[in-house]
Every structure is written in structure tokens, then in C-alpha cells.
Specification:
mainly alpha, 10 helices, about 65% helix
């Protein structure tokens, strides 16, 4: 595996071809927690359903968070495209404790053991473009002031997005490789 050095420069986060998705996920671990992005996604869902606009942050912060979310889903897609690399990374576990199961919000036991199953389920049904567009549409709906702008039709279940973020968080916890 090639060694790359990345920053949070927007050109990397918006790049279509993430060369090392594990490095991107690891980089994010040191900069912001995935639970923060899950929380943001919850806000977007709530404000899409409300008659008020999501205005808790500046627009640039919201758009930045959206780009990072889309980049995480691009990384998940790259992992999906290369199941043999996922197996080599040794990110699966064979056992799960009752405590670990209770801490899960969205994943079932099999998905906890093998987070790749989450990506497989999502990307067998939906294209990467559809996933990224759906997130962007959700955010735009949440930030709309009018009921017309809140007209968001979701073709991808929000549960899928939350599952992918939880699977990414598991990968962060289990990944012991160093990318310097």
C-alpha cells in the first residue's frame, strides 16, 4: 500500500477517487468523531420534517460537514469495491459481547462482526452518486425556509446512512495500521 499524506483541504474531500479509504477514515478519527456526523445527520432529518430552517451553524460549516459526510460515503464505496483488501485489514471480529451489542444503535450482530456487510447492502442497491445526492438533498431541505423547499423525497433510508457511519466508526476502532 502506498503512503500518502492528506490534509483537510477541500480538493481531497471532494475528490472522486479516494486512493486509500482506510487512511481517510483514520485521518477523520484524529480530527472529528463520527458520532459528531451522526448527530449532524439527525439534525438534518429533524429539520427536514419541521417548518423551521436549520440555522444553528453557518452555512459554510453545514456545507463543509456535508462534504465530509459525502467523502466518508465515498470511502465506504471504495471499501465496498475491494472486499479482499477489507479482509486483509483484519477488521472483522468473531465474537461480540452483550455489552457491545447494547452499545450499538443501528447495526445487528452480524454487521458488528463484519462492517463490510453494511457497505455491501447499501451499494448493492444504490449507486455512489445516488447516496451522495441524497445526503446533499437532505441538507438542502433542512436548510430551507419554505415548505416547498422541504419537499424532500428520500429514495435511500436514513437508517442506511446511520448504519454506514456506525460501520465506519467500527473500522476506526479496529484499524491498527499506521498511515504516515
Amino acid at each position: 500500500m502506498k503512503t500518502h499524506k492528506f490534509s483537510l483541504d477541500s480538493h481531497y474531500w471532494t475528490k472522486d477517487d479516494v486512493e486509500c479509504p482506510y487512511q481517510l477514515i483514520r485521518l477523520l478519527k484524529h480530527l472529528a468523531s463520527v458520532s459528531y456526523y451522526r448527530k449532524q445527520l439527525r439534525y438534518y432529518c429533524c429539520y427536514t420534517l419541521s417548518h423551521t430552517m436549520y440555522d444553528k451553524e453557518s452555512v459554510s460549516d453545514v456545507l463543509y460537514d456535508t462534504v465530509v459526510l459525502q467523502s466518508l460515503f465515498k470511502a465506504a464505496y471504495r471499501i465496498y469495491l475491494n472486499p479482499s483488501e477489507f479482509k486483509k485489514m483484519n477488521l472483522m471480529v468473531s465474537d461480540v459481547t452483550r455489552q457491545e451489542l447494547m452499545e450499538l444503535e443501528y447495526l445487528n450482530e452480524e454487521e458488528f462482526k463484519n462492517p463490510y456487510l453494511v457497505f455491501e447492502t447499501v451499494f448493492d442497491c444504490f449507486s455512489l452518486d445516488r447516496v451522495c445526492k441524497s445526503i446533499f438533498d437532505l441538507v438542502m431541505s433542512a436548510m430551507s425556509e419554505t415548505d416547498f423547499g422541504k419537499d424532500y423525497s428520500c429514495s435511500i433510508s436514513m437508517v442506511n446512512f446511520f448504519k454506514m457511519l456506525e460501520a465506519i466508526e467500527l473500522i476506526q476502532k479496529r484499524d491498527a495500521n499506521s498511515y504516515s
